Amino acid sequence: MSRRPFSWFAVAGALLAAWLAGCATPPTPAPDVLKVQVLAINDFHGNLQPPAPFRLQDPQDPSKTINVPVGGSEALATAVKTLRANKPHHVFVAAGDLIGASPLLSALFFDEPTLESLSLMGLHLSAVGNHEFDAGHAELLRRQRGGCHPTEGCRGPKPFKGTGFQYLAASTVVEATGDTLLPAYQVRHFDGVPVGFIGLTLKNTPNLVMPSAATGLRFDDEVESINRWAKVLRSQGVEAIVVLIHEGGYPRSSSMNGCDGISGPIADMVPRMDKAVDLVVTGHTHRAYNCVIDGRRVTSGDKYGSMVTDIELRIDRRTRDVVDTSATNVLVRLDTFAKDPEQTELLAGYIARAKPLMEREIGRLATEVPMVVGNESPMGHLIADAQLAATRDLGAQVALMNNCGIRASLVMANTGGIVR
C-alpha cells in the first residue's frame, strides 16, 4: 500500500488554522426580546356615546370619501379588549384631555361617568391635559381621589370613588412646595423588566384655562421636564422610557397612519428630548399620525375615542432597553367592535338620570347652523350672541367665541328643527 509523504507544512497549516479559529470573535447572539404592547388614546373629551362619523377614503373610489360610524365607550372598551387579547405584557395609556369640553352626558355629572368608564375598561395611566384643569386643580385632585362634588354633592347613581388609573403631571408644579401636583412618572414592570412612563401637559396650559384654574401652579417647559425625569428614571436603572405628552403636531398627510411633512410643536420637541426616550404618545391637536422623528416613534390617535393606537415595544431583556418599535392606528368602527355590556350598564345608570335634561326642548331651528361656511362660523356667531344676551345685564358689551371650542353644528336631520 502506498503512503503519502509526511509534510511539516501541512501540519503547521492545520495548527495555524485551529489557532486562528480559537481566536476569532464569536458571533453576537440575537437579543432575547420582550414584547410589550402599549395601547393609547388621546383627547377623549367625555365622548361616551359615538361622536360624528369619521371621514375615510372610499376604498372603492379613492377620489371620494365615506363616513364611518366610530367611537363611544361601548365600542372602545371592546376594541381595547380585542387588541390586548393574547398579549400577556400590555398597558393602556392616554395623552390627556380625557375630560373637559364634554357632551352633556359626561359634563352634567362633572365628567365622573367618563372617568368611571375609562377605569372600567382598564386604563392604567394618563398625562394631564389642559382640559383636566378646566375646573381647577382642587377639582382635578378630587376626581383622581374620589368623593362627591364639594358644593353640588353626588349627582350620579352612586358615590364617586375616583379614577382607577393614575394621572401624571411631570411639568405641573405646586409653587408653595416645589412638588409636582400629581406624580411625574410611574414605573411598570413586565416580566421583571422596568418601563418608565412620564406624563405631562403643554406649557401653554395657563393660557387655555381660566386664570383661577392655574392659581398656585407653575407649568414648566415640556422638554426640560421630560429630560429631568428621564434622568431620574435612568438613575433607577430604567432604560425603556415612554413619554405621554398633551402636545402634538400637524401632518400634511390625511392617512391615519401617515406622517408626511409633520410640523408643529412636537416636531421641534422630540429631537431635544433625552435620547433615553423611546416612544412619545401625543395629543392636543386632534390629529392622527404614526411617525418616526429623530429615531423615536411618535403617535397620535385622532380624538373622541375614534381610534386606539396599538404600539409594540421590543425590549432587549439583557440591556432592558428598547431595540425597536412599531405602531398602528386602529379605527374603532361600530361595524367591527360590538358594544361592551359592562359599559352599556354603566351608561344606562347615567342616561336614566340625565334623560329629562337631554330630552328637554330648549329651542327650534328655522334653518341649520353649520360650524363653518367659508371663513366664517355661523355656529360661533350664534354662541357669541347667546353669551352676550345672557350677560348684557351684567354690563357685557362684547362676546367672543374661539373656533376650537365649537364641537358640532346644529342640524335639521332627524330633529324636526327641535334643539334639545
Question: How is this structure best described in words?
Answer:
This protein has 2 domains: 33-331, Metallo-dependent phosphatases (Purple Acid Phosphatase, chain A, domain 2, 4-Layer Sandwich); 362-419, no CATH class. It is 24% helix and 23% strand. It has helices at residues 8-23, 73-84, 104-107, 112-120, 137-145, 222-235, 265-269, 341-358, 378-391; strands at 33-41, 54-57, 65-68, 90-94, 125-127, 166-168, 172-174, 185-190, 193-201, 217-219, 240-246, 277-282, 288-293, 296-301, 307-316, 322-331, 363-364, 418-419. A 6-stranded mixed sheet has the order 6-5-4-1-15-16, covered by helices on one side. A 6-stranded mixed sheet has the order 8-9-11-12-14-13, covered by helices on one side. Helix 4 packs antiparallel against helix 8 (341-358). The longest helix has 18 residues, at 341-358. The model has no long low-confidence stretch (mean pLDDT 92).
In CATH's first tier, which class of the largest domain applies? Alpha Beta
CATH topology of the largest domain: Purple Acid Phosphatase, chain A, domain 2
Order of helices and strands: HEEEHEHHEHEEEEEHEHEEEEEHEHE
**Low-pLDDT runs:** none
Instruction: Give the proportion of residues in helices.
Output: 10-25%
Summarize the main sheet: 6 strands, mixed
In CATH terms, the superfamily of the largest domain is Metallo-dependent phosphatases
Which value, in Å, is the CA radius of gyration? 27 Å
**Helix-strand category:** alpha/beta
- DSSP summary: helix tally: 9
Q: Tell me, briefly, the overall form.
A: globular
Number of domains: 2
Distance between the termini: 110 Å
Rounded mean pLDDT score: 92
Named CATH architecture of the largest domain:
4-Layer Sandwich
The portion of residues forming beta strands comes to 15-25%
Strand order of the largest sheet: 6-5-4-1-15-16
Query: How many beta-strand runs?
Result: 18
